[in-house]
Amino acid sequence: MSDLDGLEKDLMTKIDAASSEAALEEVRIASLGKKGAVSERMKTLGKMSADERKQMGPALNGLKARITQAIEARKTTLEAAALDARLATERVDITLPARTSPKGKIHPVSQVTEEVVAIFSAMGFDVAEGPDIEDDFHNFTALNFPADHPARDMHDTFFFEPKQDGERMLLRTHTSPVQIRTMKTQAPPIRIIIPGRTYRCDSDQTHTPMFHQVEGLVIDRQTNMGHLKGTLEAFCKAFFEVDSVKTRFRPHFFPFTEPSAEMDIGYERVGKEIRIGQGADWMEILGCGMVHPNVLKNCGLDPDEFQGFAFGMGIDRLAMLKYGIPDLRDFFAADARWLEHYGFDPLDQPNLATGLSR
Ligand code: PHE
C-alpha cells in the first residue's frame, strides 16, 4: 500500500508541476498510457490471488480515477491560462484615438472623381478604364471621324514618332475611345462611366495639356434622349448638392453622336460667389448625344437593334466650378500650400449617404 501511496504522491506532484499542456500529456502517458506506471500495475492484477486482488483491485482503480481527475483538472487550468495569455497579447485598445491630423490632403481632381463615381454607381453604372496611349482607330476612326476631316484638328493631338509600320500612336484626346473598347468586348446592356486622363496641345487659364474627363455610355434596346436628359439632370443635382437645377441642351456637333448637344446649367453670380442651378446666366458643362449608328456598326452592333447615349465632361472644370478654384494650371503645379487650402480630408470618403463634400 505504501508503494501505491508513494506513486500517487509522486504523480500528483508531477501533475501539479506540469507547466504546459505538452508537459501534462507526458505525465499522462507515463502514468495512464499503455506502459504507464498505473497501467503496468493494473496488469499485475491477473496474476494475483483472489484475496490480493480483492484488496488491490479497488485500490488501483481508486488511484487511476484520482490521477485521471487530477490530470483533467490541471488541463482545464492550463487551457484557461493559455487563453488568458493569448487574449492579453491580442488585446486591442479601442479607446486609443485615431490620428487627429493626418498629413496630406486629397487633390480636388481625386475628390471630384470619387464624387462622380459615387453618384453614377448609385444609378447602376460600372467604372471602365482604357489606355492613355491610343491608336488612331480607337481615338478617331471608330468614333466616325472621317479621314483628314478637320474635326481631328479640333483636338490638337499629341502624336508619337511613327512606328516601323508607319502607324502613329497618340495621347488620347478624350475618354471616348473607351466607348469603342467597351462596346467591342461587352454585350449590351452597357452602363459605364470612364474617368481618366486626356491630353491636348493647349495651355491657358482654363486649359492644360493634360486634363481629366469622365465619359458616360449607355447602350440598350430602348434608350432614348429622355433618358440622357434625366440622367444628366439627376447627376447635376447630386453633384452640385442642390434641390433643383436649370439645364438647357443646345444643338452641337460631335462626329460620334447624332443628334449631339452641349448641356448648359443655369447660374448666377452673387458678389464673388457663383450659385449653380439657378439664375439668368448659362454655363456649358458637358457634351453629349445619341451614339451615332456608324459608331455602333464599327463595334459590331446593329443600330436597328441597339441604341444609346454618351456624354463627356471635364473633371477639372467640374472641380473649379464646385469648389471655386480660379486657375486650372494650379491643379498641376504640385504646390503643397495650394493643396493644403483646396484639398480634402483623406478620412472623408465621398458618399451619397453622409454627403459628397464636407
Ligand atoms: N469626347 C467629347 C469631347 O471630348 C465629349 C463627348 C463625349 C461628347 C461623349 C459627346 C458624347 O469633347
Structure classification: alpha+beta
Which architecture name of the largest domain does CATH use? 2-Layer Sandwich
Residues in helix, %: 25-40%
Counting DSSP H or I runs of 4 or more residues, the number of helices is: 11
CATH topology of the largest domain: BirA Bifunctional Protein, domain 2
What is the arithmetic mean of pLDDT? 92
What is the H level of CATH, i.e. the homologous superfamily of the largest domain? Bira Bifunctional Protein, Domain 2
* Shape type: elongated
Sequence stretches where pLDDT stays below 50 over 5 or more residues: none
Biggest beta sheet summary? 8 strands, mixed
Tally of domains:
2
Outline:
The protein is of the alpha+beta class. The chain has helices spanning 2-17, 21-32, 37-43, 50-89, 108-122, 136-139, 177-185, 225-240, 293-298, 315-323, 336-342; strands at residues 126-127, 133-134, 170-171, 190-199, 210-220, 247-254, 257-270, 273-276, 281-291, 307-314. β6 (247-254) and β7 (257-270) form a beta hairpin.
Give a verbal description of the structure.
The protein is α+β, with helices and mostly antiparallel strands and 358 residues long. The chain folds into two domains: 89 residues; 235 residues, 2-Layer Sandwich (BirA Bifunctional Protein, domain 2), CATH 3.30.930.10. It has eleven helices and ten strands. Strand 6 and strand 7 form a beta hairpin. The termini are far apart. The model has no long low-confidence stretch (mean pLDDT 92). The site of phenylalanine has 11 residues, from strand 9 and strand 10.
